[in-house]
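Input (glutaryl-CoA dehydrogenase (ETF)):
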Amino acid sequence: MPAVALNPYDLFDVRSLLSDEERAVQDAVARFTDERVLPIIGECFDKGVFPRELIPEMAEMGLLGSSLPTEYGCAGMNAVSYGLICQELERGDSGIRSFASVQSSLCMYPIYAYGSEEQRRRWLPDMAAGKVIGCFGLTEPHGGSDPSNMKTHAKRDGSDWLINGAKMWITNGNLADIAIVWAMTEEGIQGFLVEKDFPGFKAQEVHRKMSLRASVTSGLFFDNVRVPEANRLPNVRGLKGPLGCLTQARFGITWGPIGAAIACLHEATEYSKTRVLFNRPIAATQSVQLKLADMARRITQAQLLSLQLGRLKDAGTMQPTQVSLAKWNNVRMALDIAREARDILGGAGITTEYCPIRHALNLESVITYEGTETVHQLVVGRELTGINAF
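Output:
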């Protein structure tokens, strides 16, 4: 039989392991990224602007809260489909995927998992439609890797709560209509739905960023913010709540950087075929072929890792340590590939006319947020030894 040409960005034909529905989701989001994200994202990154005009289109495609039930206006997709959404969005830019991740996994998920039925009915349909945007307030200015050392607190005041404190590095902060805020109470850490017009609540955008420039990042400040009891998430207490949200979001993050890495490999490969040095394209040199082959090897490993993680999640058997291993491996993979691709592009690689430098800068944030690389390494180490080294 004649050999069938392999897809250079899917050397193990992982796509053949997807269902028809999963492939359809991937194809639809890939078209959206190609047609709507890629033509504008370089300029958005340069100007430090999030393309909020894309939100209604993302909502129309069912990308917001995609894994939640249809009874709340959501698409009811499986976990692998959500992962593929993240992969294709991040092939465009980490900031676009971050928006969808926060809206879906860090805001809509806790309302669904920890909220009352009244809260679900009130918020989820409008969030799925992109009419209400959320942000997730956990990280604080003094440090993000130790959420148990939370300074933001909420105290009962009659039938309401008064929240004081601050949160930092909050994606979507100045876009958000509501903030899912985690605060220390006398009964332990609890979650609250803080609406943007509540007196004493302020979001302040972070500027002068060199990463996630096409994304909104903010600080949140609470000065005796009065929150009604009806806005408290009633069905969780303690760190289980925010950590459960982070596990959902980290799952998507294991997929997203695969898209960034594929974008970088594609651009480096095409550039290497046209860049002529010493009378031949650099793609004809062993050094460049070795680099490109190593990129493809590492992307293939990440694809298989995330697909198996998705199958475990859909089966209900996924463990947080498995998410940590995949987040650690896949983000490190993508960051290394972005840097290597930038090197292959030479001087041209330092401009945002090409994607590797943009992805490399973005991935510096992705490897830090929702658990630094070191934190995830220590989670795996604890699993292996039974000893907590934090």
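The radius of gyration is 21 Å.
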